[in-house]
Design goal:
about 450 residues; single chain; alpha/beta; five-stranded parallel β-sheet
């Protein structure tokens, strides 16, 4: 009896998890994965560690090596770009990017994990030498060479989100003069509310980063090689420009075949099915169901893609799954020099985008009891909670400190996922040990503060 043909497009987190789930759950499937790039499964989220010489080798910064699965019978083809879905025939058109030859490959089930591509600024000079992007194996190795080049003195990073902050920090640690530009008013302003971004902006400046917000870039200037970044309010000398100005779904090839929204994200139903029979989609190129917002929104995280893949493969052969995908919270963390933060769910910016009315509370305290001096680790800690005004349902939150309390972000994520209210978080039973925390846990105290209770 012929095996069921499962074709996977894309070798990042969603594709990787799909293979793992298929191999674990089924024995009668033939799995083929196509990856357009040469290097399979590079983890761009590990790029900063590589740039700072904190990994074993650049070739290890990946989800998997193809041979891990090929020896189990999985067909993994790099340098193979899927260019078209032929739904009536249940085939995909695949181009070998080295030879330009194409072939039709049949599928019974097709999983799209095509991911995203970085945005390039549409300004004059974008094709000059030394104007780089911050995504993928090739760009990682190119940037590393420049960080080690003593002739490169001035680096301009465009984009003050996670990727831009990582690029700026790695560049400063390499001894470069760094300017961070973004059109938004606050660094990390999409991820954190003003109370926390003000702390981190000060840290960036203390560490020597020239932070320029509300900057509208008009051109990259230079002859052959970039020499400066021009904005409406001035120019910034640049031997290297690293663009980290956002991402867009890698779905142009699906237009007219798979239903997309106005921004190019693949439309899926509550079972992660597209408009085409036996064609499914997951990961960054789709809109994820947000538990906090109770709506589909962009959440470009590895954790989201992996949870979607786990659900999808579990129900891949169900005519109609018994339950829909339950959704995700959207949790992430980042270090900004000496500070560490974690965030989960919604904040003021994202809640406004989805039209959800929220209230927020900002809480500041010290990590341990008052009798522990600051030079013994009793550092300031900060918590932001977002909640619905009437029900007090927790829909978002963030923690920040120079001490690594990012694991508390996981507690906030669980509170959001389980629809906890402030009252329940205020009384949740956590441990106390003065070498670690207060008599009431930090999140207990933050919830009590949000409820207007007297300080402990």
């Amino acid at each position: 009896m012929a095996k069921t043909k499962v074709v996977i497009v894309g070798a990042s987190h969603g594709g990787h998890q799909s293979i793992l789930e298929l191999l674990q759950r089924y024995t009668d499937v033939e799995i083929t994965m196509f990856e357009a790039g040469d290097f399979v499964s590079f983890m761009s989220c590990g790029m900063q560690l590589y740039l700072e010489n904190s990994v074993t080798d650049v070739t290890d910064v990946r989800n998997f090596e193809p041979r891990q699965f090929t020896k189990q019978g999985v067909h993994i083809l790099n340098n193979h770009e899927v260019t078209k879905i032929n739904a009536d025939d249940k085939t995909v058109t695949v181009k070998d990017t080295r030879t330009a030859k194409t072939e039709e490959v049949a599928y019974d089930k097709l999983i799209l994990s095509s991911g995203v591509v970085p945005k390039e600024l549409p300004v004059p000079g974008k094709d000059l030498e030394n104007v780089y992007l911050m995504r993928g194996y090739d760009w990682a190795t190119n940037i590393k060479q420049k960080l080690e080049d003593p002739a490169v003195k001035n680096i301009t990073v465009i984009g003050a989100g996670y990727i831009g902050i990582e690029a700026a920090e790695a560049s400063r640690k390499a001894g470069k003069n760094v300017t961070l530009l973004d059109v938004i008013p606050r660094p990390l302003g999409t991820y954190l509310d003003p109370e926390m971004t003000s702390i981190l902006e000060k840290e960036l400046k203390t560490q020597g980063v020239n932070v320029v917000m509300n900057a509208k870039i008009t051109a990259f200037t230079g002859t052959n090689k970039v020499a400066a970044v021009k904005t409406e309010n001035g120019e910034y000398p640049s031997d290297l420009v690293i663009q980290a100005a956002g991402i867009k779904p890698n779905t142009a090839w699906l237009k007219g075949t798979v239903a997309l929204d106005d921004h190019g994200f693949i439309k899926t139903d509550e079972y992660l099915r597209t408009n085409l029979s036996d064609v499914y989609a997951l990961g960054d190129a789709t809109l994820a169901h947000s538990v906090a917002a109770n709506a589909q929104i962009p959440i470009a995280l590895a954790t989201v893609a992996r949870r979607e893949a786990r659900y999808l493969v579990q129900h891949l052969f169900d005519k109609k799954p018994a339950r829909p995908f339950k959704g995700v919270v959207g949790s992430s963390a980042l270090s900004v020099f000496d500070y560490h933060f974690a965030t989960a769910g919604l904040n003021q910016t994202t809640a406004k985008r989805v039209g959800l009315d929220i209230k927020t509370s900002f809480y500041r305290d010290n990590l341990r009891p008052q009798y522990v001096p600051t030079n013994k680790g009793n550092v300031p800690v900060f918590v932001k909670l977002a909640f619905e005004p009437l029900s007090h349902r927790i829909v978002g939150g963030a923690v920040l400190s120079k001490y690594d309390i990012t694991a508390q972000g996981n507690v906030i994520a669980l509170a959001i996922q389980q629809h906890l209210r402030l009252e329940e978080l205020a009384e949740a039973d956590f441990f106390f040990q003065p070498g670690f925390d207060r008599q009431w846990s930090l999140l207990n105290l933050a919830a009590q503060h949000a409820l207007g209770e007297n300080p402990f």
